[in-house]
Each structure stands twice: as structure tokens, then as C-alpha cells.
Design a protein that fits this description.
five-stranded mixed sheet; alpha/beta; globular; 286 residues
């Protein structure tokens, strides 16, 4: 409780803050639904307007860039759920606290952790690009007569989207990716050394990607991203994406596509093991 004279000081201070409108409490978007530039948002609670705008600008820029890079047709407007904290994200998605973002293909909706938290951790732009990649694949599957969601070759989709999310990004986010994956280098090396064939690599990644343990999942994403960055997106990305969609939709008629990815993995593993014999490689160095 404040003494009477301090109440007067507090009241005057509050008026000053209101007059200048620079207060962090005032610079917030309200909970609920709103639209901006054709993107439909729903926030679980108040979000800093600065951070909401960061997410908005990233979505606009990265969706336009991805549409050009992957030669994608125009698609429906984006629908985005923004969690104001990790608990709200977990309630909405059923995922663990350490999941930064999620795209739900059947809903055609993105779920993001608080953009301020993602930005502070160096994850905002990469997360946006990664999830936009998943939506692009879902849209292409639907255009070709398939279901939007697919569990087939999901690990390969993660490898592609993880690589798209990491390359190129700001120096700050690139540094975060290097430092984060450096901690998992031993697990990544063991995984690649032990997986001689494409299917072996995929099985190992699928087990780890479904883990509820952060370190196990992180090592899988680092391995997937390394393969994707080294091999998948160095080729024409539009060709790689369409080969993956065909493999997911009609595997019986996609032997050339399977062989393409198998050869790609074999070349990646040969370079990886060859470099490892002479020097311990850093994340995404191939």
C-alpha cells in the first residue's frame, strides 16, 4: 500500500506515461482476431505491437520470396495464431514448450510462439521460412489431387524445410544455428556415420523427430538441416520440392525421384565422412 503523498506522485507519473504513449503497456495488440495486409491473425493474449509487426513483416517478405524461389502459384491468404506465452502455445497445439512454431496443413494455419521470444532467441525469420515451406508443400500436394497433410517421407520434408529456414538468414540467426547445432555435433556425426543408405538415415531421423526430449529432437533437426543445406537446396529448389511431392503422393511411380534423393544422400554422406576423417566439421559447413 502507498502512503497518500506517494499516491499523488504515482498518479502524476501515470498521466505522464499516458501522455507520451511510449509505455510498453500501451504498445500492445489486444487478444483476439485482427487482419493486416490480407493476413488473418488471432492472438491468445496481448502481444507487443513491435514484435507483432516483426512477425508480420517476416511473413510478408518470406512468403513472397518463397513463392518466387519455388515457382509457386498464388495461394489463399495466410491464417496465423500467435501465442502470447509458451503455455498458450502448448494448449493450442499440444506441443512441447521448446517447439518454436507449427504449421497445421489440414487447418491451413500457422502457430507461433510469442514473436518477441522467437526474436530474442534468434529464431523468428528461420521459423517463419521453415513453416512457410511446409505450407508450400501442402499446397502443391493439394493442387496435384492429394491430401494437404502427409506422413510419407516427412523426415525428408523436414530436411528440406529446415534447410530453407536456415539459408539465408541474418548473421545473428546464422550464428544461433551454428552455436545451437555445435552442441549436437557428436550426435549428428554418429547418426550420419551409422546411416549408410537414404532409408537408414530417414528411419533414424523419424525416431528422433518424434521424441519429446529436446536434445534428441534438436540433434535430428541439426542432421536434417545439414543434409538439406548441403545437398537439397543447392540444387534448383523448385525441382527438389516437386520431386518430394511426387514421392509423397505416388511413391509407386516415383522411382526416379527416390533414386535422385538416394544419390543425393550418398554424395552427402561420402563428403561428410571424408571431411570428418581430416577435420571435425562445423554445422552446415558442407
Amino acid at each position: 500500500m502507498l502512503f497518500p503523498e506517494l499516491r499523488q506522485v504515482a498518479a502524476l507519473s501515470a498521466l505522464v506515461l499516458l501522455a507520451h504513449s511510449g509505455s510498453a503497456l500501451l504498445a500492445q495488440t489486444p487478444a483476439g482476431a485482427y487482419s493486416q495486409d490480407g493476413i488473418d491473425y488471432r492472438a491468445s493474449g496481448p502481444i507487443s505491437t513491435q514484435q507483432a509487426e516483426r512477425l508480420h513483416q517476416a511473413l510478408l517478405a518470406e512468403s513472397a520470396d518463397l513463392q518466387t524461389r519455388l515457382e509457386l502459384p498464388a495461394s489463399a491468404p495466410l491464417r496465423v495464431y500467435i501465442a502470447h506465452n509458451a503455455a498458450a502455445f502448448a494448449r493450442a497445439t499440444g506441443r512441447n514448450w521448446f517447439v518454436a512454431a507449427l504449421y497445421a496443413p489440414d487447418e491451413d494455419r500457422f502457430y507461433f510462439q510469442n514473436p518477441g521470444s522467437l526474436h530474442a532467441r534468434g529464431l523468428l525469420t528461420g521459423s517463419v521460412r521453415h513453416e512457410l515451406c511446409h505450407r508450400a508443400l501442402a499446397n502443391l500436394r493439394e493442387v496435384q489431387g492429394g491430401a494437404r497433410s502427409s506422413d510419407s517421407w516427412l523426415w525428408l520434408e523436414e530436411a528440406l524445410c529446415e534447410a530453407m529456414g536456415q539459408t539465408p538468414v541474418s548473421e545473428r540467426e546464422s550464428r544461433h544455428a551454428r552455436e545451437s547445432c555445435a552442441q549436437e555435433a557428436g550426435a549428428v556425426h554418429a547418426l550420419v556415420r551409422g546411416a549408410r543408405e537414404l532409408e537408414d538415415f530417414g528411419s533414424a531421423l523419424e525416431r528422433r523427430l518424434s521424441s519429446r526430449t529436446y536434445a534428441v529432437r534438436r540433434s535430428a533437426f541439426c542432421a536434417a538441416g545439414r543434409f538439406g543445406a548441403a545437398s537439397l537446396i543447392r540444387r534448383p529448389a523448385a525441382r527438389t520440392v516437386r520431386a518430394l511431392v511426387k514421392l509423397q503422393l505416388v511413391p509407386a511411380r516415383a522411382e526416379p525421384e527416390r533414386a535422385f534423393f538416394a544419390d543425393t544422400y550418398a554424395a552427402f554422406r561420402a563428403r561428410f565422412v571424408g571431411i570428418e576423417r581430416t577435420a571435425r566439421p562445423g554445422p552446415y559447413s558442407l
